[in-house]
Each structure stands twice: as structure tokens, then as C-alpha cells.
Design brief:
- It is a single chain.
- This protein is α+β, with helices and mostly antiparallel strands.
- The protein has helices at 56-63, 83-91, 142-149, and strands spanning 3-8, 37-38, 47-53, 71-78, 94-95, 98-99, 104-108, 128-135, 154-162, 165-166, 175-177.
- Strands 1, 2, 3, 4, 7, 8, 9, 10 and 11 form a nine-stranded mixed β-sheet that branches. A two-stranded antiparallel ribbon has the order 5-6.
- The chain has three helices and eleven strands; from the N terminus they run βββαβαββββαβββ.
- The longest helix is centred in the middle third of the chain and has 9 residues, at 83-91.
């Protein structure tokens, strides 16, 4: 059994093939071990920790919400995260597919991250901020939809941990075997 921690770069699909014309970058371009598959997803336009394994049972335990593996994201948002907006996120927000569970949310200093290509658009007249958001569920584009619902659109999203597994010092495109 193997478990791989991979830092998925921006604009890379969480699969090994793409039928689009022209094809988009996939996991196949990073020299990952054979027979491993993503345990969960990370959107094409999101970055950070992706776990890959060759063990279906482990993949299920890592991704099934009943096992409550916390997922933490560093999220750059547009706008000012007021105490009211942060409280809304912490309580959970109503999305089109129903209410979210409460989330752990804290405003953080801008983290020391690699440069993104292309960079996030900077606007002098619109403030931005960074949040650490921890979820125990994993709906499609959930963090982005939650921040938008409280008036803080997501500009950049980086997953930094899943349960006990941390991104650590892995740079985009780098991977290592879990210990």
C-alpha cells in the first residue's frame, strides 16, 4: 500500500487523462508512481495537498465525511472579512444544495507561498485578505461557494492539510511518500 502527498499546481486536473481538445495538464505529467489514484478531488483552479493511493479502502476512509477528516485551506478572498461575515462562515451558510456544516474560520496573515502562474489579479482599490478555513465535508467547490455567499469571493485557494497529512514544504508538482 502506498500513500502519496502531492502539491497539485494551479490549472492541473486531478486525473491522469483528459479528453479535452487541446488536452489540459493532468497528474500524468509529474512522475507519480504507477497504479495510484486521487483520494478525493481538488478543483482545477485550486492548489495544494492532494492525496493519492493504490488502496481503495484507505481512499474511502480519507474521503468519506463519516470519518470526519478535517481539510484545511488557506483562502485569499476579495473584500473585508468583518466579524459578521466570519461568524456566518463559522455557523455554516445556506448554499443551493442545502446548509453547510459549521466551519473553522480564522483570518490569517498572508502566508508565505510560491508564486502562482498566472498571478492573482491585484486591484489597488479592492482590499483582499487571507482566511484559514477548515471543513469536515467536501461538496463541489464548497469553500468558493461559502465565501461568495458571505460577500467574500475567493481569489486563490490552497489546501494545506487533510486529517493528519500536511503539505509542509512541498512545492507545486512535488510529491513524497507518506511516512
Amino acid at each position: 500500500m502506498s500513500l502519496i502527498l502531492f502539491n497539485k499546481p494551479f490549472n492541473v486536473l486531478c486525473q491522469f487523462t483528459d479528453r479535452s481538445v487541446p488536452p489540459r495538464p493532468t497528474l500524468a505529467g509529474f512522475g507519480l508512481p504507477p497504479q495510484v489514484y486521487a483520494a478525493g478531488r481538488l478543483d482545477h483552479d485550486s492548489e495544494g495537498l492532494l492525496l493519492l493511493t493504490d488502496d481503495g479502502g484507505l481512499a474511502h476512509r480519507l474521503t468519506d465525511p463519516r470519518h470526519k477528516a478535517d481539510k484545511t485551506y488557506w483562502v485569499q478572498v476579495e473584500g473585508e472579512p468583518t466579524p459578521e461575515r466570519l461568524a456566518q462562515l463559522r455557523r455554516g451558510v445556506l448554499l443551493t444544495d442545502g446548509p453547510t456544516l459549521p466551519a473553522g474560520v480564522e483570518q490569517i496573515d498572508p502566508p508565505s507561498l510560491w508564486a502562482r502562474d498566472p498571478p492573482v489579479r491585484f486591484r489597488k482599490t479592492v482590499p483582499d485578505a487571507w482566511l484559514a478555513v477548515t471543513l469536515r465535508e467536501g461538496r463541489n467547490r464548497q469553500v468558493r461557494r461559502m465565501t461568495a455567499a458571505v460577500g467574500l469571493p475567493t481569489l486563490r485557494l490552497v489546501r494545506v492539510s487533510i486529517g493528519p497529512y500536511q503539505l509542509g514544504g512541498l512545492q507545486p508538482g512535488q510529491w513524497r511518500q507518506a511516512e
